[in-house]
Design a protein that fits this description.
two-stranded antiparallel sheet; alpha+beta; 7 helices
Length: 341
């Protein structure tokens, strides 16, 4: 391929051959054309991404039936962020998970993100290298979509992201395997037809509380600071399988607790609180009844009683003297009225 030179800001750049376009007015003479040929030539620069697309990674993103609106919006956000992804119709619940390998083969995809809904409230995510494996199963928690967050960050659609991993991914073998799976799945292949040759956002995978926290940040050019874009979710690892959607178990998370067990513990804790309140009420009732019975027989009632002085007993041998009846005094005014009558 022939090289060319073009000037930009005083520097000479060497790359693909640029196109030259001649602009000639209609009906002009040949002499005028030769004189103004150098002035009317416009140099069109070569395309920015002129490489060859060699990494043929394609990711199939779909789900089972029974998902809610939040999961549907999360899948749409992932498809928007990953230009090398493909979509498919929802899979029936009765179908086996091994059917997904055939769907990936039909769609010409070698990676898969499958969202499995159970009981219309629990969401599981499978990430698999189809068709040979390995694969991992996660419980998805704390989902926040792009439309819900309304963050100030923004990035170009189709641009290639940077992948940032926690240092703990290199310390344990199960996290090292997941790091390779995430790298091959979420990284946009170079020179992909639907991608843009710019890097303006970063995907972060952080390990905290035995869970993997996913965040998407915009890289600001001025000071290289980060502004969150979304979406965000938390992955709780359950198992890692050797095959694609099955096979021997390579790793099982001992700290994982199923949502059913978690809800059962919450119900038992609530029931224990109710029983405790009932016991407290019964104890208060028994205390009140005991207090009432004690009040009838007061122990302190005889504290202030003092014994009286003993007096000699007198026995009268003679009868008492008779009492003289006293005459009633008549008022003088009443006498006068009686005399007048």
């Amino acid at each position: 391929m022939a090289a060319f030179k073009r000037k930009r800001g005083g520097q000479t750049l060497v790359g693909k051959k640029a196109k030259k376009v001649k602009i000639v007015a209609d009906g002009a003479d040949a002499s005028i054309e030769t004189e103004q040929e150098n002035n009317n030539e416009i140099t069109v620069p070569a395309p920015v991404s002129g490489g060859k697309w060699t990494n043929k990674e394609r990711v199939l993103i779909f789900s089972s039936r029974g998902i809610n609106f939040r999961t549907r919006h999360l899948m749409q956000d992932l498809r928007t962020m990953m230009p090398h992804s493909k979509a498919d119709t929802k899979m029936d619940r009765k179908d086996k998970l091994f059917v997904i390998n055939e769907v990936c083969e039909i769609k010409n995809c070698n990676k898969c993100l499958f969202f499995e809904a159970k009981k219309k409230q629990d969401l599981y995510m499978w990430i698999s290298n189809s068709p040979h494996g390995p694969s991992a199963k996660f419980l998805v928690q704390n989902i926040h979509t792009l439309a819900e967050l309304k963050m100030t960050g923004n990035c170009l659609k189709g641009s290639r992201p940077l992948l940032s991993f926690d240092p703990k991914f290199d310390s344990e073998p199960q996290y090292a395997l997941l790091k390779e799976l995430f790298t091959q799945t979420f990284s946009t292949p170079r020179y992909h037809p639907k991608s843009q040759p710019f890097v303006d956002h970063v995907f972060t995978f952080t390990i905290a509380d035995n869970r993997i926290w996913f965040r998407n940040y915009q890289i600001i050019e001025e000071d290289a600071s980060l502004v969150e874009i979304g979406p965000r979710f938390v992955l709780n690892l359950i198992k890692i399988f050797q095959g694609s959607f099955g096979g021997p178990t390579l790793f099982e998370n001992p700290d994982f607790k199923s949502p059913n067990m978690h809800r059962r513990e919450i119900r038992l804790a609530a029931a224990a609180k109710v029983r405790e309140k009932q016991m407290v009420k019964e104890m208060q009732k028994t205390k009140r009844t005991e207090a009432k019975t004690d009040l009838t027989t007061d122990v302190t009632a005889d504290v202030f009683r003092t014994p009286a002085e003993e007096k000699p007993v007198l026995i009268e041998t003679e009868p008492p003297a008779p009492r003289v009846a006293k005459k009633k005094k008549v008022n003088g005014y009443i006498r006068q009225r009686m005399a007048r009558r």
